[in-house]
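question for whoever is on the cluster today: can someone run the full assembly for these? two chains, 227 residues total. i dont have access anymore since they changed the login thing
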Amino acid sequence: DTGVSQDPRHKITKRGQNVTFRCDPISEHNRLYWYRQTLGQGPEFLTYFQNEAQLEKSRLLSDRFSAERPKGSFSTLEIQRTEQGDSAMYLCASSDRKYNSPLHFGNGTRLTVT
Amino acid sequence: TQLLEQSPQFLSIQEGENLTVYCNSSSVFSSLQWYRQEPGEGPVLLVTVVTGGEVKKLKRLTFQFGDARKDSSLHITAAQPGDTGLYLCAGSYSGGGADGLTFGKGTHLIIQP
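^ ran it for u. tokens below:
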């Protein structure tokens, strides 16, 4: 069981720079999700894909954020012109299409914007 | 906006004690999941409850889904230091899509030896 993997685990960047995170889901899962979690809070939904189609985007996802899943396998989340308020843990999760399927989370990418 | 409120926010108890944490909403869930998260890691699923009044047990953990499917509780018997972590409830309002899965802020649990 390879699980969900995320890369990098940590990223420190200066305000205004662009960053990109990668997520590799469990191979047989066709649903992939991105969440953001700040200190002391639960995960907040950002967006999700079914195969390569992005089906839902939260209003938390400003136009500086873009996510892709070009071949329905791995996904990338890019943040342009980072701001200090973007500092958070970015979590990726995957699931299959069964009713009430649980989410399998990766260990996240912790972003610090200085 | 559909909100999930968890209480207490923080709980620190001695090893061997019992505890209960709560998850409440004004909306009806089609299902509810409990996750546990340790520092630096992603949440890990503990249980899914679907039917109103349902009770599920996982060793020393007992999960209950309210009859009206608006609330849930997690009871831990004889807590151990390994139970320390952030306990998150997540409710699905739409019956399976990620768009319906909303997380509470969690209960930070510390079990002191």
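summary bc i know u wont read the tokens: The radius of gyration of chain A is 13 Å. Chain A touches chain B at residues 4, 31, 33, 35, 40-45, 48, 55-56, 91, 93, 95, 98-108 (CB under 8 Å).
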